[in-house]
Structures are given as structure tokens and as C-alpha cells.
């Protein structure tokens, strides 16, 4: 089991409290147990449950945030580290950024692109770039360039998005 506090190390201290609200469990690694001052004293364990209660409140607040497009809850994104849809990235932008910083991940994605998506990205970027150039040339009233960009866009619309003619 993983430590409930640091979420990184294996738990070695397991505490169960039976009370009015039902059973509560805490799993701690050695470092978190030492930081929390866990000894055999019941008062030290009570302080941990107070801290855990505040953490569970934060989790329940995160559980209330839901993507209006796909219905994925923020808590699920945080636990699975997977977004439900592309809109989740813009809706939960700040929360996802915080999650990445906790994992020590900074900057844009710089890994490899899957082979099946390698042409997908270039065709979409071409469309976006041409649309921007078309709008700029219309704004500058350069209609000859605008007509060329329009024709390029029409040609791109006829080609498949993934870049393969096999479809």
C-alpha cells in the first residue's frame, strides 16, 4: 500500500479508527509517521486523523468539479492521471499543471509522437496556419493571396486528416 500523505513510498504503519463516522484507515510510510510524531501515544494518532480529515475535505471538493463535456470528475483525473476528453485539459488546466509539478514534470511534452499520429499533427497545423494567413490577407485586403490560401485550404479539406489515402 502507498502512504496516504506523501503518495510515494510504501506504507509501514497502518492505523484504523472506529468512531461515529465509521471506520477510518491511515497508511503511513516511516518518514511521514516520524514527521507526524507517531509514537505509542493516542494523542499523536488523533492529530493525524485531524490532518487526514482536512485532506479528505480537499479531495471531496476536487470530486465536485466535473467536466461538462464528458462528465469526468477532477478526482478521477488526479487518481488515474488520465483526462476524459480534450476539453478536460482546458477546464482543469490549473489543477493538471499542479499535478504535473508535483510529479516534477515541467514544460511542454517533448516525447515521441506515435507513428499513426505523425502526419495527423502536420495536417492539422497546416490547416490552422493557412486559416490564419487567409484571415490576415483578408484583413489587409490582399485578395489574390487570400484566394491562394482559400484554394490550399480546400485542397487540404479533401485530403484525410491522418495523412493516409488508404481510408
Task: Tell me about this structure.
β1 (13-19) and β2 (22-28) form a beta hairpin. The radius of gyration is 26 Å and the shape is elongated. 54% of the residues lie in helices and 8% in strands. α6 (118-139) packs antiparallel against α7. Residues 162-167 have low confidence and may be disordered. A two-stranded antiparallel ribbon has the order 1-2. With 167 residues, the chain is mostly helical. It contains seven helices and two strands.
Helix content: 40-55%
Percent of residues in beta strands?
A: 5-15%
Low-confidence stretches: 162-167
Q: Strand count, sense and closure of the main sheet?
A: 2 strands, antiparallel
Distance between the termini: 47 Å
Order of neighbouring strands in the sheet with most strands: 1-2
Number of contiguous helices: 7
Overall pLDDT confidence: 77
SSE topology string: EEHHHHHHH
Tag the structure with descriptive keywords.
167 residues, mainly alpha, two-stranded antiparallel sheet, disordered C terminus, 2 strands, 7 helices, 8% strand
